[in-house]
Amino acid sequence: MSKKTIAIIGATGNTGSAFSRRLAKTSHRLLLFDHNTEKLLGLVKELCYSQPLADIEFMTCESEASWEADIIILSVGPDKEKELAQKIRQFTNRKIVLNISDGSHRQELQTLLPGTSVVNTLNPFYGNEEAEEDQMELFISGNDNEAIEVTSNIMEAAGFVPLRVKEFNNKQINQSKNNTMETTKWALDPAHSEIHFKVRHLMVSWVTGSFKQFDATVETQGDDISTAKVRLTANINSVSTNNEQRDAHLKAGDFFDAENHPQLVFESDRLEKIDNENYKLYGRLSLRGNEKKIVLNAEFGGITQDPWGNTRTGFSVTGKINRKDFGVSFSVISETGGIMLGDDVSISANVEFVKQAALQTKAA
């Protein structure tokens, strides 16, 4: 999706500021409006500090401001909507107005703003205005399918799980939740992924290596990362330590035995959330014909959209295994009696995934 200009009117209110904080994390341009200049300056200062690359402008609602924007978000009381509609109307041209104030006023706003697509959201911050949960559900209602799709894509990039409903009632909301529990598949982006390992040499330095050929898939329920099921395979013959003689030895029977066991396989059992960024990844590693349960640390990088509209997510994974648990028992003692090779192998991976349904061939 191309970069959009999003105006948030009533930016310093509980809901408006919560939306501002989330949208500042995206690549879109923000125009923040409010009557309270002092609070507005404080919010902008906070956003610029936490998101130094964010594109943000601000002004008071009383100023002679241009209301030009691709999407205008209204976070004001019903008593202000008519006044603001008059200001917005002169700039209306297939504009989207997202009403997060009161869902019951969509039809009234639609009448005040002919030619505009008014989209309603159910206030996801109600009773929890400072909520920071990454994957918060956002219920969306409207008649314009194109406007709904644009709004959903932007809100998804901001960390919401957009759920479409016809009306804001429990039946519609529960049905929408059930519909989003279908499996989402994520495909590895090999151009932005890597797997490394390292092991002690003579107990004074490290030998590092990587696998040049590997693949991984992730399946989630909707976009809920905590439900992720991960499967990774690596081609043993692609192992590289920047030394051909050593690589050939690693592929041989003393180590990986690539002829009889050509693949390394990891399959996850569950993902345990520690906080919004950190998880424990439990699973089974198969290597050299041996399968053992292991636990890895996974740092979640979030969900975002790239410049071509693809939805992406990423992880940094670290952990440690004992090579002898997997039958790699090769050991040599140096002339001085020291151990040539350590038993513990440190693993690290940086992996990026793209939603398969939106996968495109362009890469940065």
Q: Helix and strand layout, with pairings?
A:
Elements: E1 5-9, H1 14-23, E2 29-34, H2 37-50, E3 55-60, E4 71-74, H3 78-89, E5 96-99, H4 106-112, E6 117-122, E7 136-141, H5 145-157, E8 160-164, H6 170-179, E9 183-188, E10 194-201, E11 205-211, E12 214-221, E13 224-235, E14 239-240, H7 244-251, E15 263-273, E16 278-287, E17 290-305, E18 311-322, E19 341-355
Parallel strand pairs: 1-2, 1-4, 2-3, 4-5, 5-6, 7-8
Antiparallel strand pairs: 6-7, 9-12, 9-19, 10-11, 10-19, 11-14, 12-13, 13-15, 15-16, 16-17, 17-18, 18-19
CATH superfamily of the largest domain: NAD(P)-binding Rossmann-like Domain
Low-confidence stretches: 126-132, 334-338, 358-364
Q: Given the C-alpha coordinates, what overall shape results?
A: elongated
Spatial extent as radius of gyration: 26 Å
Helix content: 10-25%
Q: How many separate domains make up the residues?
A: 2
CATH class wording of the largest domain: Alpha Beta
What's this model, at a glance?
Helix content is 20%, strand content 41%.
